[in-house]
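During the reporting period, our protein records have gained a structure token line. A sample record is set out beneath this paragraph:
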Amino acid sequence: MWSQAELLRLMDVRPVTAGRYHAPAHGPTERDVVEAGQLLGAAVVASAKQVPHQRVVSASMIFSRAAAHTAELAVTVDVLRAGRTFSSAQVQVHQHDSLCCAGVVLLDADPPDLIRSTAPMPEVDPPGRLRAHELPGTVVAGREIRVVGDAYTDDAAQLGPPELFVWTKFRDKPEQQYLDAALLTQSTTHWTVAAALRPHPGFGQSMAHRSISTGITMATITFHDDADVTRWLLYATRVIYAGRGHAHGTGRVYTEDGILVASYTVHAMVRGLDHPNTRSHPGSRPVL
């Protein structure tokens, strides 16, 4: 059983030396691959700790090699430029001295609004009208998930547009805002592959890592406002392209009252298992 506390333990990286952090191992799992969202969340936390006087605005990573749950991770943060207004950092995650993923993080001094406008929240059923989502492999103790239209399903015969609308809420409030951001980030990579497969007869997310090869290859998240993960958040994901072995999705995260707190893009691999260039990547379905 996975839990909110375990997700935070894995992403709340601990400093070792200057610019070097340690993420613990989770232990044996059915599929020994760390999710891309967890790695990106750890990068957000490490950057926030490395530049504590500024907030993380955006983080982007490329996932080039799968990381295992059964071994610890080494996270390095190299500050490329530390400024009074903006700072930038490069983050790398290694396991067994091999590079698993690398990316860049933007931080800023959090100035007040000069102007403000946002894209409107989609008109979807609120969480109170939806049943709890309890599909095996997605359950985390301390986290609720409710999917609009029950669209995240193992039933490959259920077709729909390439989009998913998912409400999430955690039970316990983290002690630091960057841990809220990490938990928010961890969920962003769950939905893109499932959304990409929805319009295509004979394909569904339950086939991932079994009869088709899928995985997240790149993800970017931008934080617009502070989020409270103990309140309902809507992840609105839409895939805008699928083909040539790839799928590309965009997403937004809203509070229940329509405040846009984050946006994200996710690029994924979607290929047959016998494709000659297929390699293992962090999976799209929550491996929790």
In short: The CA atoms of residues 169 and 231 lie 6 Å apart. Residues 36-50 form the longest helix (15 residues).
